[in-house]
Specification:
3 domains; four-stranded mixed beta sheet; about 45% helix; alpha+beta; four-stranded antiparallel beta sheet; PH-domain like; 8 strands
């Protein structure tokens, strides 16, 4: 919407609200209660495996004997690994399913696949596999990242049906 049109809506709705307020009616809210059906749906998981592995490495480093002169460096390394484990735990993985794209977070940042870049989508018990035209498969696992696989499968099935993408449910 253009800015001039938005200003007109604001001005008209404020005039309408003044009239409604005088007559004792509820106020008019132009965008209240409207849900955009094309808005992307974001499914969040939780990463447990990487923090557990990093904390186990920290425990291994702290139990190993070190040289006499490197005490502060080893504790700095332990603190760095603990901070990395906390970062991995708090930075939740996700799959965002839009009307014509899917998006997720990878190690080097957010990655997005548009509808013409998706070769096929497969939903199995505990797994969702998105196969892109180029590159490796995107695998979302219930065991590794605690994703809601059933809801993800339903949303991906609707997107695949709308755009003619091959969809397999096993």
């Amino acid at each position: 919407m253009s800015r001039s049109w938005e200003r007109k809506i604001r001005r008209n709705s404020s005039q309408l609200n003044k009239q409604r307020k005088k007559s004792g009616q509820d106020l008019f809210k132009p965008n209240a209660g409207k849900v955009d059906p094309t808005a992307p749906v974001r499914f969040k998981g939780r990463n447990y495996i990487s923090p557990i592995l990093l904390v186990s490495v920290v425990v291994l480093f702290s139990l190993l004997p070190t040289e006499k002169g490197s005490g502060s460096q080893s504790w700095l390394l332990v603190a760095a690994y603990v901070a990395l484990a906390v970062l991995f735990f708090l930075r939740r993985p996700y799959l965002q399913v839009g009307s014509d794209h899917v998006q997720t977070r990878r190690m080097m940042g957010d990655k997005r696949l548009n509808k013409d870049e998706i070769k096929s989508i497969s939903v199995q018990k505990g797994y969702v596999v998105i196969q892109p035209v180029k590159g490796g498969n995107w695998v979302f696992s219930r065991v590794m990242n605690r994703y809601p696989i059933e809801q993800m499968g339903e949303s991906l099935e609707q997107m695949a049906a709308a755009h003619g993408i091959r969809f397999d449910r096993q």
